[in-house]
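tokens incoming
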């Protein structure tokens, strides 16, 4: 189906307008609290559903179902991102009032890179349909890794992207408000905030490894798959602040996400078989896929809430985290001074994201979707070597807190 130019223009205008409104609404550095996050989450969900309605009216019901399915699929897989965000923010001790700014630029980068990957994916599939078998295998493999929960270590500070940044530009060990750069003795120096944005972008590139094949199982229409991904990504920041502190309650969510990945992998196998081998091989309709995703998410969330982790297990996890922190440096009531960080791996359902405050570290596990391309030994981040200020935040040498470059 050929999508008219006006549809792309309208979609682009909506994204730009909403990003501008979001930026103006959060132009001052402040902590995003539950009520504000809930309002913005409702706005993004409502806008996505309205957009689905517009697609229904202009492109037909099937396209609207494909958009909704792809949006919900990406939204559910993006939950895994939240655990990695928690780990990265804790590792770099990002003050809570700066976290929205980091995610804002992270979202812009994700929109650009995801667009490139999706366009490339559509082009490859259109020329080599058999590659869908490979994509299906990737999703099955990701599902198995997510289920195994092998607690692989992830060290954000040692990821290739962050190490490359340190080689390109000197990186300070202190935050300077919301600045990404500052000048010292005539030399341009990056702040840790830039390293955090780079780490977030690198994590999204890893997530794209299974997100892109998954959405290609729903539709081969570039407009449908990119717009659905864009709306899911745009709402990710609000979702993070909304669920901060509650992620550990959804300890069965990882199983639900693994099931969804496996299901979409099977859908890709059937789809590839139908196109490459024989038309007699059935395909799974998008409406069925939508129903399966909704049911899987609902069951995993309800199961988590009805069967919460025992308090003693949570206490043991927290004691283990504090022990890791103590091994890396000095801990005070669960907080971490610069120079002492506990890094583990992050899997869905095994991280206490609510304690991501300046000076505190969330060390849990890292999911199968977040470990590629990074290695970790639990060492102290090279950038954070000075003691933190008394309030748990890194001291700043600038009075321009809140200003930008």
């Amino acid at each position: 189906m050929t999508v008219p130019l006006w549809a792309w223009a309208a979609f682009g205008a909506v994204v730009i307008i909403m990003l501008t409104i979001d930026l103006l609404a959060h132009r001052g550095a402040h902590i995003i609290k539950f009520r504000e996050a809930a309002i913005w989450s409702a706005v993004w969900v409502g806008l996505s559903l309205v957009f689905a309605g517009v697609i229904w009216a202009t492109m037909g019901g099937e396209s609207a179902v494909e958009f909704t399915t792809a949006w919900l699929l990406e939204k559910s897989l993006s939950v895994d991102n939240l655990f990695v965000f928690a780990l990265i923010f804790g590792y770099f001790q990002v003050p809570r009032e700066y976290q929205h700014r980091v995610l804002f630029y992270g979202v812009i980068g994700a929109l650009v890179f995801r667009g490139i990957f999706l366009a490339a994916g559509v082009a490859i599939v259109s020329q080599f349909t058999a590659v869908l078998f490979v994509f299906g295998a990737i999703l099955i493999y990701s599902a198995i890794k997510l289920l195994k929960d092998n607690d692989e270590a992830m060290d954000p500070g040692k990821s290739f992207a962050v190490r490359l940044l340190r080689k390109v530009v000197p990186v300070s060990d202190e935050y300077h408000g919301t600045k990404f750069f500052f000048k010292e003795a005539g030399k341009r120096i990056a702040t840790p905030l830039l390293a955090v944005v780079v780490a977030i972008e690198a994590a999204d590139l890893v997530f794209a490894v299974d997100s892109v094949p998954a959405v290609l199982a729903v539709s081969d229409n570039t407009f449908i798959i990119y717009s659905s991904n864009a709306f899911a990504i745009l709402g990710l920041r609000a979702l993070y602040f909304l669920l901060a502190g509650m992620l550990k309650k959804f300890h069965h969510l990882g199983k639900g996400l693994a099931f969804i990945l496996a299901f979409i992998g099977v859908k890709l196998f059937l789809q590839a078989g139908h196109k490459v081998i024989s038309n007699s091989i059935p395909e799974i309709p998008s409406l069925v896929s939508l129903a399966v995703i909704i049911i899987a998410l609902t069951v995993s969330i309800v199961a988590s809430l009805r069967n919460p982790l025992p308090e003693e297990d949570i206490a043991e996890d927290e004691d283990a985290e504090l022990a890791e922190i103590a091994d890396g440096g000095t801990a005070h009531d669960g907080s971490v001074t610069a120079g002492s960080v506990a890094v583990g791996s992050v899997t869905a359902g095994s991280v206490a994201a609510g304690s991501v405050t300046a000076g505190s570290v969330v060390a849990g596990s890292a999911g199968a979707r977040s470990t590629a391309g990074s290695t970790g030994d639990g060492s102290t981040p090279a950038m954070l070597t000075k003691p933190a200020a008394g309030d748990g935040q890194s001291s700043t040498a600038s009075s321009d807190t809140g200003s930008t470059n």
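note: Strands lie at 181-184, 187-190, 331-332, 335-336, 345-346, 365-366.
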